[in-house]
Amino acid sequence: MKRFLSAILLSAAVSGAWAGNPAKLFDEFKNAENAEYVKVPKFLLWLGKISSPAGDVPAVGKISGVRVLNIEGAGNSVKSQFERRLKEEANDFDELMNAKDNDTRVRIFSRSDGKKFKNLYIFTVDSADCAFIELSGTFTAEDLKKIAENR
Description:
Blueprint: H1 2-18, H2 24-29, E1 35-40, H3 42-51, E2 63-72, H4 76-89, E3 94-101, E4 104-112, E5 116-125, E6 129-140, H5 141-149
C-alpha cells in the first residue's frame, strides 16, 4: 500500500513538473541582447489605481501584476527560439487569440478552469521586435471581451 501511494504521489509530482509555465521565458530571455525587462508589482498597480481614473481600462481591478519583456531588433534566430520555447511552455494552455496583420503576429494564452482565466500571456512579434507580456490575475470571459473591445 505504501508503494502504491508513493507511486501516485511521485507521478503527480512529475506530471506537475512537466506542466508548462510560460513565465519561465522571462528568466530565459531577459538577459538577451537588447532585452528590456520590467516587472510592475501589485503595490505600484494599486497606487496607479487610486491616483488616476482607471475607469476606462477594462478589468484593471483584476490585474495583480504586470511583467513585460521587449527585445528590440531581435534577429530571426532569437524570435524563432522564443516562439519554440513559448510553444513548449504554453502547450497545455488555451490559445485565446492568434492574429496576423502584415508582418505583426499576436498570440494570447491563458489557462482556464471553464469559467475563469488565470493570467494572460501576450506574445507579439514583428519584423523588428519581439515582446512578451504577462498580466497576472483571474479574469472572466466577460473581462476578456471588454479588453478585446477596447483595444
